[in-house]
Amino acid sequence: xxxxxxxxxxxxxxxxxxxxxxxxxxxxxxxxxxxxxxxxxxxxxxxxxxxxxxxxxxxxxxxxxxxxxxxxxxxxxxxxxxxxxxxxxxxxxxxxxxxxxxxxxxxxxxxxxxxxxxxxxxxxxxxxxxxxxxxxxxxxxxxxxxxxxxxxxxxxxxxxxxxxxxxxxxxxxxxxxxxxxxxxxxxxxxxxxxxxxxxxxxxxxxxxxxxxxxxxxxxxxxxxxxxxxxxxxxxxxxxxxxxxxxxxxxxxxxxxxxxxxxxxxxxxxxxxxxxxxxxxxxxxxxxxxxxxxxxxxxxxxxxxxxxxxxxxxxxxxxxxxxxxxxxxxxxxxxxxx
Length: 337
What we know:
Elements: H1 2-15, H2 18-26, H3 35-42, H4 45-59, H5 65-81, H6 85-97, H7 109-132, H8 134-144, H9 161-175, H10 180-196, H11 219-225, H12 243-248, H13 273-290, H14 293-302, H15 316-327
């Protein structure tokens, strides 16, 4: 019976309906007008869309079974090994850094806009380093391994990526005066949107969202980010506001004539949990062991993926530069602006 109760609790936890169910049982429906009540209604949306997307995939006979299987295993594994690490890290950073912040924001609309721009900058930094520092890529590559895009990909993360990401984002926000209450509100909105932008073509085929896509990151932008095509590699690092991608020249729109190829460039078995989860760590360890001298060993850890002590680099930056050279004069390619 205890096992059944645990399974029941895990299902309820995944669906995110526990809090809403408690409010319904209490009969106090006015609670849905509070912040906690609104959160209780919004939180189940992504799990619901995951199940709907899976159902639509079965109907369209495009179930992406391999992706769902591995991502489900990742979700279960992470539930056991990393449940509370990110929360503890956020709490510790707030307590450590808030006293030395030069000023404090408040819960007003203008500070909310400021806070979101600051949060997005922190997200950009974490995400950019996750692609440009090989050690951090080992944490992030699990999220890029799936060779199809659907909402289950939002659960595909190495268990240490959350603490790493929240350390960077929370540090930036707290040092720049974003108060904890405002930070948690932004984290909830950003987390919900960040999950939604992984929606696949079984639910939304063309996800550019028209003029809206000029101002925010859409699922189309994030599909580009997950692509291994040379044009698309290492672009669109933001989550909702595309301000910082434009500032730092990493913004790239999806082009209809260039079909997105999902996954990572390393040869791997995307249906193998161990390869998806630990493959990049194993590959890094092998390179470090084989590298001559301590300097080269350290460089393999901190240089971008694709760096080689032999000088035969295959980093995303060089691959894209070579692509643009080859395409120059042959086809119209929209470069990042």
